[in-house]
Amino acid sequence: MNDVNLMEIARRFERKQAEAVVALATESAPLADGWMVFGGVGSYVNKSCGYGHGREVTGAELDALVEFFSSRGVEPKAEISPFVPVTLLHALAERGFVLREFETVLYRPLRDVEALRKLGQGAPSELVIKRVDPSDDAAVRTFAEVSGSGFVPEGEKMSDLFLSLGMKGARTPGTDAFVAWLDGVPVGAGGCESSEGLTTLFGTSVLPAYRRRGIQQALIAARLARGVERGSDLAAIMSAPGIPTERNAMRLGFLMAYCRAVLVKHGAGLAPSP
């Protein structure tokens, strides 16, 4: 793995992130070599990303970024990799952007098929992982409900907007959605998107009563195998630092690629986005 170019991984992953949220959005507009995306007040797709790697972002473009989100009643948000020019950071700071959080991007080459087959074997023997038929409305809804369950506070109802985005994501071309079943109960779920040699894993959740049983690792392994089937040579996953997703990915051979920054510009009357 010593020959891996982390800057190139960032270019590929950040471009895929931008393309993914554009596919889910209700409105989008290009920003330099990336995108600005809006999916409604409270939507997690409200962000700008994918830029700063191919060419310089101009001041006028950053002013357009602020206007794009502010005019829609939400805080402007920028997600950037550490490989963008320092001048971009300065220009965002000058416009009032502040750091909100970090996100970890991990990667794993998919060359060793035999090693991939051995992953995820610590899960219960009765566990069955099924790929969702995107034309099956009930199966898609089950995926969205279980996959999204870990991203809302326990005990709270998932919003209709969040549920609809999960269902739309499961039906996006190039995406595969998986549900883990144990004794007839859907206990975990996760998706992946494969194109241009990169498989990106996303939306992984395991229901609280079934955690610490190897189910998340089994879901990761199933999606890595699907990535190989789709011709990918690299897999990537994004996680909050230090949570089980990051730890499970590292147990299955993922390595740290980089830490991306999420910046926001607060403003009176502007709604934050997840």
Give your account of this protein's structure.
This is GNAT family N-acetyltransferase. It holds the Pfam family Acetyltransf_1. Residues 127-269 form the N-acetyltransferase domain. With 274 residues, the chain is of the alpha+beta class. It has 2 domains: 6-103 and 259-264, no CATH class; 112-232, Aminopeptidase (3-Layer(aba) Sandwich). It is 33% helix and 28% strand. The chain has 8 helices and 11 strands. The chain has an 8-stranded mixed sheet, with helices on both faces. A 3-stranded antiparallel sheet has the order 1-2-3, with helices on both faces. Strand 7 and strand 8 (185-195) form a beta hairpin.
User: Order of strands across the biggest sheet?
Assistant: 4-11-5-10-9-8-7-6
Instruction: Work out the strand percent.
Output: 25-35%
CATH hierarchy: architecture of the largest domain: 3-Layer(aba) Sandwich
Question: Based on the structure, what is the oligomeric state of the protein chains?
Answer: single chain
Order of helices and strands: HEEEHEHEHEHHEEEHEHE
Domain N-acetyltransferase: 127-269
Protein name: GNAT family N-acetyltransferase
Organism: Corallococcus soli
Per-chain topology:
Elements lengths: L5 H19 L2 E5 L2 E5 L8 E3 L9 H12 L6 E4 L5 H9 L3 E12 L3 H5 L10 E4 L5 H12 L11 H11 L4 E8 L2 E11 L2 E9 L8 H15 L4 E6 L4 H8 L3 E10 L10
Parallel strand pairs: 9-10
Antiparallel strand pairs: 1-2, 2-3, 4-11, 5-10, 5-11, 6-7, 7-8, 8-9
Helix pairs in contact: 5-6
